[in-house]
Structures are given as structure tokens and as C-alpha cells.
From TrEMBL:
Enzyme class, UniProt record, top EC level: ligase
Obligatory cofactor(s): Mg(2+); Mn(2+)
Protein name: DNA ligase
Gene for this chain: ligA
Entry annotation: catalytic residues: K118
Amino acid sequence: MKSIYDKIVELRMQLRYHNYMYYTLDSPVISDSLYDQLCTRLIQLEKKYGKKNSFNKSNKLLKQIGGKKLHIFSEYIHKTPMLSLKSTNNISDINLFERRIKKYINGIDDIQYYCDLKIDGLAVNLLYKNGLLVSASTRGDGYIGEDITKNVHMISSIPKKIIGANIPKIIEIRGEVFIKKSDFLILNQLAVSNNKKIFSNPRNAAAGSLRQLNPNITRQRKLMFFVYGYGAFVSDKKIYSHNERLSQIKKWGFTVDQNSMLCSNIKDIIKFYNKIYSNRTKLDFEIDGIVIKVDSITFQKKIGYVEKYPRWALALKFISLDVETKIIDVSFQIGRTGIITPVAHFIPVNVSGVLISKASLHNISMIQKLNIYINDYITVYRAGDVIPKIKNVVVKKRDKLVKKIICPTYCLSCHTQLVYSSNNIFLYCPASFLCPAQNIQRLIYFASKCGVYIKGLGKKNIIKLIDYGYVNTPVDFFILTTNMLQSIPGIGKKLSNIIIDSINASKNVSLDKFICSLGIVDVGISISKILANYYKSITNFIKTNNDILSDIKGIGINIASSIMKFIKNKNNIYIIKKLIGILNIFFIS
């Protein structure tokens, strides 16, 4: 049951991190589809095990729509929740979406769907009272956003006053703030000429421009605004169609993108999707899919909402575009566990609004699998619209100038002879703590939450301690003094005392955490728990052999091989025995 608990905690931590990166910092590191997969997995685990265990009380995280606001802006409470959208990149999910819709409206077949573009920008809420713009805010966590009224006043495409007839008493206009591709290129060109940091993509540029403390910077960025919906709507004139409401909003002086379509069936929706997908590169702004909404406001109310999104809407995301480029080099990186990762460097190309110039080949066997050479032409894409990957080699374009990729035989850091894993998938350096490149990352990992956890001693400070010669092996953490710490730039008396207290507290460590802290290839948190439950002491663990390991459920041939190679290294055993004499390594039954 502990492993289930750990998985739930891990998923919660991942989701909190990704919420913060996307909604608060506007710097997502995974795609919406991958985020949704994490949410779905957490829901499944908590639904299955939550009733039997205390760890599943009301999990506010799953009900959270966005992320926390930045403290530099004051709070704004939305009059109606600013919900997110359920998303998919599988066209066949439209059928499931429609079946669910019909279930909520008693099987009515005559359903109209309003389809429009999913613009890749920053969602904004505009509150108008009696036709005047009184406030503007970001989505935030869906309930409380950031007040960005002053900055929004700098965007020319946002009316400060509604014009025309039948002006509502109260209306929340909702839409996307974005920057055009052409303006984005100019913005980055100016940044380069002024020796300033460039933006990675138009969305980040728009978000960064809108969240400036100085509104004049926002004014200079040429931001645009398209309406996609509304929140509160208090009006004497009743409009019962989403399409008609947007038409009325357009008459009031707002910009609504013309790329929309009313669809009567799934066939029409797919036709619209294919049309937009084919023409997306012709648009002067970034989009990452289409949005499908039930058009009837009456039906929308019947179908309702869940905590995070309306049941009556679905975002159908695009699969990342493939772009051709040319390999110019392959470098080799050394990871924390000594695994050698080949990285392909190619002529920089723009993929879905982001300039990329390299992609991991993951392991040595991938070079053979792709049959790739230097100077080959390749197609690259961004997996989940985030991670750069090589799809294939354009073999028909291969010429006499291609060169074979020569894999290293000795470690580029410590010059130890590299060895292949038992399944011949990857090369790695067996020197462990004696390899400088590995050692830095191993020491950081040892002191992290995955290891013994020395609070206050982060990555930057550990690197400084290594540079000053105070820390070379994990043992050295436990002989640090306040005087040594205070000699490091940035570590004062107060922090040094905190770190020493943390070091002393970390001396009591569970067996599974200690095994995990060693950074053995393929031995992470869950495998460490299996090993701890079997051996029950660190002494038993370091005396193990292949026969014993092969009898442990969950330990395969590759993991067993990694463990044996690690404990056969005399330096590793020397360090472990030194740590045994310092730490209280206990087993939790």
C-alpha cells in the first residue's frame, strides 16, 4: 500500500509543479495531453484506494483549474469561475464526447456545435458594467486571478467602452491575448540587437508582455485580443445561442476570429478540423487546435460542469508538425548514473513557434535503430508540442558527405573505459563517484528529497562546495562545519546553521531512502523500497549476489546487473561503509 501512497504523492507533486509552470510562470514543460494523463491517473488511484485510506480526503488539487497568482499583482475574484477545457489529440474522442452530451440531454439528436480556433495565448477576463471596462484579470486558479487592468488598457483591440444597442448591465468578456508571429519575430530581433534575452515562443512573449509592472512596456508589444466566450451575462435581451452571443459581442466592438463554423454532426467537425490543420501555417498567430462547444445555452446549462471544465466543450489539439533539417554533429552527455546519452545537433528550425537545434537520441542503440549519420537530413517534431524529437531519417537525400557517428569508448570526463548494459541498449561509465561529471550530479541527488535530504543545501551551494574542495564524496557532507559553510559566497551565519541542523537531522535515514540516494542505474524510489523490504539492512544489501537478486519479485535481469556492477566497485563499497559508520540507517517495516 505504501507504493500506492508514494505514487499518489508523486502525482500530486508533479501536477502542482506543472500548474505553477503553466499558469503562474507561463513556461509549460509538458503538453496539455500529458498533463491530462497525469490527472486521469491520479483520479483513478484516488478513486480506487481513497475510500480505504486517509490520504484521500478532498483533494483540492484535482479541483484546481489554474495556478496561483504572482505576488506582484493584486487579487481579482472572478464573478463566475474561469474554467479550463478538457483536451485530447485523438479525433475519435469526438464520438465519445457526443455520446456523453446526448446522455445529459436525454438523447436529443439535433445538436449544433460551435467550432473555433484554440489560440495559444493567455486567457483574460474583462468585466464591463453598464458598458464600461472596470477591471481585467488573468485566469489564475480559475476563481482568483491577477488584476492586470492597467496593462489591458494598453491593448488597442480591447474596447474601453462597449458601443451599440442592448448593452448588458454586467458582462464578463473572455478571450485570448496573443502576439502575432510577424510581431514576435520583430520583438526577438530587437532583443538580439539590444543584447537582451529572447522569447522562446509567441505565447511566452504575450504572457510576459501582459504581466509587466510597467504598462508602457505592454503598450510597446503590440498585443492582440480575440473573444472566445463570456462569464457573467446580465442583460434584458435574452440570447440562447453561443454563436449568436458572439455575434452580438462583435457588434459591441470586440474582435471575434472569423475562423469558426456551426456544425450539425461529427463529419462536419472533422472537416473543419482538417481544414484548420492544413491552413494553420498560413495564420499570423499560433494555434494548437480547435475548440468544440455545444451551441445551445439551454443545453449547456443542462449538461453542466465538473470542477475543472464544462462538460459541453472539448479542445481537440493538433499533433505536432514535422519539419525537415540537417544533422551537423552528435555530442555525448554523461548523466548522473553514468549513462552516455547521444545528442543530435542540427540546423536550427522553427517547430510550432519554437526554435530548436538539438534533440536527445536517448541511448546508443537509437543510433542504430534510426540508421542515422552526420550530415543526414532528418524530420523533427515536438512531442506533445514540447519535447524535441527526431522522427526519421530522409534516406533518399543521403549523399557521399555523410559520416558515421563514432561512439566513445572512454568516458569523456574521467577516461574510464565505458561498458555496455546487459541488454546492449546503452553505454555507461562504471566509475560512479570517481567520475567528475557523474559525481556532481550524484552528490546533488544524494542530498535531494529522493536521497537523505539535506534541507537548505541546494544544487548551487553543492556545486560551490565541490569547487572549494570541501565536498568530494557523500561522506564529506557530514564533516562540514559552520566555518566551512560561511566561507562560501552566499551562505551566511543563519543559513549555515540551518544546513548543519539539516545535516544532523539527515543522519537518521530509512534504508529505502539510503539505497535510493546511491544513484544506482535503474534503482529509483519504488525499486529501493522493494530492496529495503527484502534485505532489511544495508549490510545484507551490500553482501547480495545475482542468485539472491533473481529471486526478488520486481527485480529483473537489467536491474540486478546494475546493482551487482555498483557494489562490485571497491570505491562505492568504501563510501557506503564510511556512511554506515556515520548514519543511523533504519528499516521501516
